[in-house]
Batch of 2 targets.
Target 1
Amino acid sequence: MQPITITIVMGEKKRKERANNNFIFGKKNYTFMLIGLGIIALGFILMSGGGSDDPNVFNPEIFNWRRIHLAPTLVLIGFGFQVYAILLNPDKRKNS
């Protein structure tokens, strides 16, 4: 019975050595993710507002260029940054 116990302990030790605290992405990936999140947040901030305090009064400001064109474009660009950050391989080195 004792060799089995030693084998289990050694197997657990090897598993802990292999499971070191490496992040899935590199620093460059996380930088692009934060940039993308910032752009998405800016898009949603630009999209907000334009309402009226009185529900019986129509405010045509909700149809201005900033809310209809600029803000959704920024949100899509931010999602593009997110996709790029996920697909980016930071370990790829150029042979010089």
Target 2
Amino acid sequence: MNNRLPPWLRQRYSRSSEIHEVKAALREKGLHTVCESAMCPNIFQCFSKPTATFMIMGDVCTRNCSFCAVADGSPQALDREEPSKIADAARQLKLKHVVITSVPRDDLPDGGASHFAATVLALKEELPEATLEVLTPDFQGNLEALEIVLQSGPHIFNHNLETVPRLYTAVRPQAEYRRSLGVLSCAKESGGGLFTKSGLMVGFGESEGEVLGVLNDLREAGCDMLTIGQYLRPSKEHLPVVEYIHPDKFEYYKQEGEKLGFLYVASAPLVRSSFNAEEALEKKPG
């Protein structure tokens, strides 16, 4: 296919004082954001808002997904002060919505669940008015680890399916579609008014029917919120883009998701899992 980006994927970047403030706070405390590590195209827009997505437990992943820009290898030891550092940075930046995510840490007995929980609790203490979202790996299906995260009391639990079942071997070779659905289902069944969320990338060669099938599976698992965005190849070593999906198709997926009963659907070429994350809570009923 033609590797040139279509016009709807071209952006003008602007640097502002808010962006510099965020980056300075991150560097001062040795913190990472998925915005930087995953080369997110929305980094300048998101860094200009009172929201941030912190990536805990380092920026080296124990898996080797063929779509992701995060480096893989042997991760570093956990920084036990990281939860308090993130809470301090969030307070300093006056954040209103905080997303906590991580690389998969399959080297840890609980996959890093305790570290997730400690970060959520530190943020609750430092910023009691902020809303908190966790975007977790699958913890290799360890439901006890999942429960540790849920008990910390985030407002939104997010776990991304990323792609359709047929393409898991190519896109997420160390993950399992049904296992990920099970994680979302168990999170929803935990109760307590928790909202669940998941995300898809398109452009890997999936069919429209396959995407709609995933949307149905997510609703059956009780998933409340959905994001759909265009896959963009981070480098020549990653999976190529098979198709650049037209914005009209994203709008169609949004309408179909809303028909299925999702409380919130963000579907557009540059949508990412935590892009405009605060909007999901603002638009929920009640």
